[in-house]
C-alpha cells in the first residue's frame, strides 16, 4: 500500500530545508518523529533517500528522483484543495486590470459592465496605457496586451485576435490617388503608430507575392491609434489600424484599402503573474472575456 501523502510532503520539506529540526518546527512535530516517518518511507520504498550527517541532510540519487515526484504531488494536492474550496466561494474583492488605451476605451467598457452585473461583489480598477507595463511591479492582476509576447516569466491566455487594416478618407484619395499595392504607400503620407521608441515605420503585408515589407513615411505619428484615425478621417493621410478601432467610430467617408492583401494576425492576450494557480477573480474575468470574444473557455 502506498505510504501516506503526508510522509511525502514531510520528505519534500526536508529536502528544501535540509534540517530535521527545521522540518520538526515547521510541522509542529518532534525531531524523533520526523526521523521515524522518514525511515518508514524509506522502508516502504526499499531505498535510502538521504544520507544523514551531523551537519546536514544530503540526498541520494534515489532521493533526488523521488523528490521531483513528491513536489508534483504536493502541488496537485494544494491545487485540488484550492479548487474544491472555491466551489463554495463567490468571486469578490478588487481586480486591477491594465489595457492599451484604445482597446480599453472601445472594447472593454461593455464587457466590464456585463461582467460586473454577473459578479457584483468584484470591484474593477482599470488603467490604460499603450506602453508595456510590468505586471508584477505595477500590482496588476491582469494586463491586456496586443501583438508579440516576450516575457516568459508570466502566464498568458489568448482571448482574441485582430488584424491591421489600411484606411484613408475618400477626400484624401480623391486628391492623391488610391494605392493599388503596398509599395504604392511609399508615395503617400502615411500616419504611423509609434508603438516603440526608434522603431522603423515598417508595414507588413501578405499577398500574391508572399510577405511584403514597406517602409513608409509621413508627417504625423502618435503613441495611440485614435489620433491617427481622426487624422486620417480629416484627410491628412493613410493610416494602418487594428480592426477593433473602427468599431468605435461611424467611419463616414473612410475607405478600406489594399483589401486583397492581409496583415499578420495579432494575438490579444490576458497576461497574469505566474503563480501556481491564478486567483479566482482573475480566472473568472479571463473566462468571461474569452467567452465574450468568442474564444474557448479557460483551462
Walk across the major sheet and give the strand order.
4-3-5-14-6
The CATH homologous superfamily of the largest domain corresponds to Periplasmic binding protein-like II
Radius of gyration, taken over Cα atoms and rounded to an integer in Å:
28 Å
Q: How many separate domains make up the residues?
A: 3
Overview of this structure, please?
By secondary structure, this protein is α/β, with parallel strands linked by helices. The radius of gyration is 28 Å and the shape is elongated. It has a 5-stranded mixed beta sheet with strand order 4-3-5-14-6. It has helices at residues 5-17, 20-27, 31-45, 61-86, 101-106, 108-118, 170-176, 225-233, 243-246, 280-292; strands at residues 50-52, 57-59, 93-99, 122-128, 142-146, 154-162, 164-169, 190-193, 202-207, 210-215, 221-222, 238-242, 254-257, 266-273. The chain has 3 domains: 5-86, Winged helix-like DNA-binding domain superfamily/Winged helix DNA-binding domain (Arc Repressor Mutant, subunit A), CATH 1.10.10.10; 93-162 and 266-292, Periplasmic binding protein-like II (D-Maltodextrin-Binding Protein, domain 2, 3-Layer(aba) Sandwich); 164-257, D-Maltodextrin-Binding Protein, domain 2. It contains 10 helices and 14 strands. Helix 1 (5-17) packs across helix 2 and helix 2 crosses helix 3.
Amino acid at each position: 500500500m502506498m505510504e501516506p501523502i503526508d510522509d511525502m510532503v514531510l520528505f519534500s520539506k526536508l529536502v528544501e530545508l535540509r534540517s530535521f529540526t527545521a522540518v520538526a518546527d515547521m510541522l509542529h512535530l518532534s525531531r524523533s518523529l520526523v526521523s521515524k516517518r522518514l525511515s518508514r518511507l524509506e522502508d516502504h520504498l526499499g531505498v535510502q533517500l538521504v544520507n544523514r550527517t551531523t551537519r546536514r541532510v544530503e540526498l541520494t540519487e534515489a532521493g533526488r528522483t523521488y523528490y521531483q515526484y513528491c513536489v508534483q504531488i504536493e502541488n496537485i494536492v494544494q491545487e485540488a484543495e484550492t479548487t474544491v474550496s472555491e466551489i463554495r466561494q463567490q468571486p469578490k474583492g478588487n481586480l486591477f486590470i491594465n489595457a492599451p488605451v484604445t482597446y480599453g476605451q472601445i472594447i472593454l467598457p461593455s464587457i466590464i459592465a456585463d461582467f460586473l452585473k454577473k459578479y457584483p461583489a468584484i470591484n474593477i480598477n482599470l488603467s490604460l496605457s499603450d506602453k508595456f507595463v510590468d505586471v508584477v511591479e505595477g500590482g496588476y492582476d491582469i494586463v491586456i496586451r496586443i501583438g508579440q509576447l516576450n516575457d516568459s516569466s508570466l502566464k498568458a491566455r489568448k482571448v482574441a485576435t485582430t488584424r491591421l487594416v489600411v484606411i484613408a478618407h475618400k477626400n484624401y484619395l480623391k486628391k492623391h490617388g488610391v494605392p493599388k499595392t503596398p509599395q504604392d504607400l511609399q508615395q503617400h503620407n502615411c500616419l504611423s503608430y509609434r508603438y516603440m521608441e526608434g522603431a522603423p515605420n515598417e508595414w507588413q503585408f501578405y499577398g500574391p507575392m508572399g510577405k511584403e515589407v514597406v517602409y513608409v513615411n509621413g508627417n504625423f505619428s502618435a503613441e495611440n491609434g485614435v489620433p491617427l484615425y481622426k487624422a486620417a478621417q480629416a484627410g491628412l493621410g493613410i493610416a494602418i489600424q487594428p480592426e477593433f478601432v473602427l468599431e468605435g467610430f461611424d467611419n463616414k467617408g473612410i475607405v478600406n484599402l489594399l483589401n486583397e492583401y492581409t496583415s499578420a494576425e495579432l494575438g490579444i492576450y490576458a497576461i497574469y503573474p505566474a503563480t501556481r494557480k491564478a486567483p479566482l477573480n482573475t480566472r473568472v474575468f479571463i473566462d468571461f472575456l474569452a467567452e465574450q470574444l468568442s474564444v474557448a473557455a479557460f483551462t
